[in-house]
């Protein structure tokens, strides 16, 4: 099972944290800038693209664990552009690509700030994973905070409306989280399983400005659901309906300032 990965990199941390300069890898402590970054970067201790708060060397270290991953309870986050087909139809290809690039940048910033891992960009959708090792035991709380950031960054609080309407799905449950490979070459870090598929369906069902949060995710985040409207969704490919709560920016749960882990 994926536990606290800092244990595996502890021998390096005491040394690396003494090297200039900040920021440092959240796991092994390797510096990303300055003299330390110039020396260690070519050795693989450069920021990992899926979450640049940790280094690529640490990702490779995680990928060497048994079965290249493990089944772990985690929270999945899907953000989907609403009306994407119509936007593409009314825009030229270059303008549409520029709009999606802006969406990717906003999503990346929101997820990374809340200690999530970017899984992938799929057309007009962004997928992220929040696992205990990086996001803490209340990992759904981090995903909800990322949803708030993304709605704010896409202009949903603005009187004139957002520059891009998005729907978000958040769900917590077991998933196989780890690296994928072609032969012996590690190619990706992702999550697989029913929790992932269900979250994708939630994002598809969310209206612009809505966040559909499963009750499992709200339980992990320790949220009182009484004030949020409930909806039972019959998701394609699932036998049993999934109960979710519907939130918008003004009804998303608010949390006290969290303690930032790591360096």
Low-pLDDT parts are 1-8, 259-263
Order of SSEs, N→C?
HHEEHEHHEEHHEEHEHEE
- Classify the helix fraction into a percent range: 25-40%
DSSP, total strands: 10
Radius of gyration: 19 Å
CATH homologous superfamily descriptor of the largest domain? Nucleotide cyclase, GGDEF domain
Q: What is the count of structural domains? A: 2
Helical/strand content category: alpha+beta
If you average the pLDDT, what whole number results? 84
CATH architecture of the largest domain: 2-Layer Sandwich
Strand content: 25-35%
What is the CATH domain class of the largest domain? Alpha Beta
The CATH topology of the largest domain turns out to be Alpha-Beta Plaits
| Main pleated-sheet profile | 8 strands, mixed
- What is the straight-line distance between the termini? 24 Å
Question: What would your notes on this structure say?
Answer:
The chain is 35% helix and 27% strand. The protein is built from nine helices and ten strands. Strands 3, 4, 5, 6, 7, 8, 9 and 10 form an eight-stranded mixed β-sheet that branches. Strands 1-2 form a two-stranded antiparallel ribbon. The model is unreliable at 1-8 and 259-263 (pLDDT under 50).
What is the topological layout?
Elements: H1 6-16, H2 34-40, E1 47-48, E2 51-55, H3 56-63, E3 69-81, H4 84-90, H5 93-113, E4 117-122, E5 125-130, H6 132-135, H7 139-153, E6 166-182, E7 185-192, H8 194-205, E8 211-214, H9 215-220, E9 230-233, E10 242-247
Parallel strand pairs: 6-8
Antiparallel strand pairs: 1-2, 3-5, 3-6, 4-5, 6-7, 8-10, 9-10
Helix pairs in contact: 5-7
């Amino acid at each position: 099972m994926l536990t606290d990965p800092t244990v595996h990199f502890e021998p390096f941390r005491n040394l690396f944290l003494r090297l200039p300069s900040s920021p440092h890898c959240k796991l092994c402590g390797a510096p990303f800038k300055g003299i330390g970054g110039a020396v260690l970067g070519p050795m693989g201790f450069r920021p990992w693209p899926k979450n640049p708060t940790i280094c690529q060397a640490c990702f490779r270290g995680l990928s060497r664990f048994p079965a290249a991953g493990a089944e772990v309870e985690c929270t999945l986050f899907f953000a989907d552009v609403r009306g994407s087909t119509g936007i593409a139809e009314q825009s030229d290809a270059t303008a549409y690509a520029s709009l999606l690039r802006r969406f990717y940048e906003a999503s990346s910033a929101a997820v990374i700030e809340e200690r999530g891992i970017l899984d992938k960009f799929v057309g007009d959708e962004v997928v992220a994973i929040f696992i205990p090792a990086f996001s803490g035991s209340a990992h759904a709380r981090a995903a909800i905070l990322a949803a708030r950031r993304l709605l704010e960054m896409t202009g949903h609080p603005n009187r004139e409306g957002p520059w891009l309407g998005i729907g978000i799905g958040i769900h917590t449950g077991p998933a196989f989280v780890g690296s994928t490979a072609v032969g012996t070459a590690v190619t990706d870090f992702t999550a697989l399983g029913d929790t992932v598929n269900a979250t994708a369906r939630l994002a598809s069902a969310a209206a612009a400005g809505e966040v559909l949060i499963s009750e499992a995710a709200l339980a992990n985040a320790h949220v009182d659901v009484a004030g949020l409207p409930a909806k039972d969704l019959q998701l394609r490919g699932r036998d049993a309906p999934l109960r979710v709560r519907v939130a918008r920016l003004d009804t998303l749960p608010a949390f006290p300032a969290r303690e930032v882990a790591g360096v």
